[in-house]
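Researcher: I'm preparing a figure for a lab meeting and need a structural model of a single chain. I don't have an experimental structure, so a prediction will have to do for now. The sequence is pasted below. Please return the structure as tokens so I can convert it later.
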Amino acid sequence: MTLKAALDGFRAEFLTKVPADIAATMQQATLQLAQDYAAKPLLQVGDRAPDFALPNALGKPIKLSDRVAQGYVVLTFYRGGWCPYCNLALRAYQQLLPQIQAMGASLMAISPQTPERSLTTVENNQLSFDVLSGRGSAIAQAYNIAYTLPDKLKEIYTQFDHALPDMNGSPDWQLPIPATFVIAPTGKILLAHVDADDHNRLEPEAALAIITRAQAMNQGVQV
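Model: Understood. Here is the structure written out token by token.
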């Protein structure tokens, strides 16, 4: 099953359970976010990926430039372990992790949640790649994908027991737009996938294909 099929399946089931007014409010917020970001400057292929050092789920600091020095990096931003769409995406990347590592590449995921909650995300989804805690959304801001939830969504998230100050240990109510970047050993971005609709995520195979193509080109192989 593709990640898209899994996401679409969950969304269809979710819409049968949530009140219509809440579903409509959430959809309108997604449309507004997409409109807001349509004109915003986003990182593009060829841009240098902003460096960072963030704690993983065990509190160990992980630096992007250290990983890039070792090979290609797949960097994915997710909203938090409370988000079922994010969990589906993280598990899809986990399934592809052996192939990513076989190419000498590494995989990193960032959310604004606390390290303790990142550890819960790792354990619940049986993840074996670095899940980093970007509290305060400073790194998401550096990648131009941070946004603040509108008041109506704050009410809904609180109703669902997903109040972001509790999840993230920060009062700002900020989240990253789900995004995935493939970063070359030069530090340059080879792929930038940003979608304001949190139901849409990059298929992990697409990230792997970019690395495969880049390695082949570096070796002078026609692709």
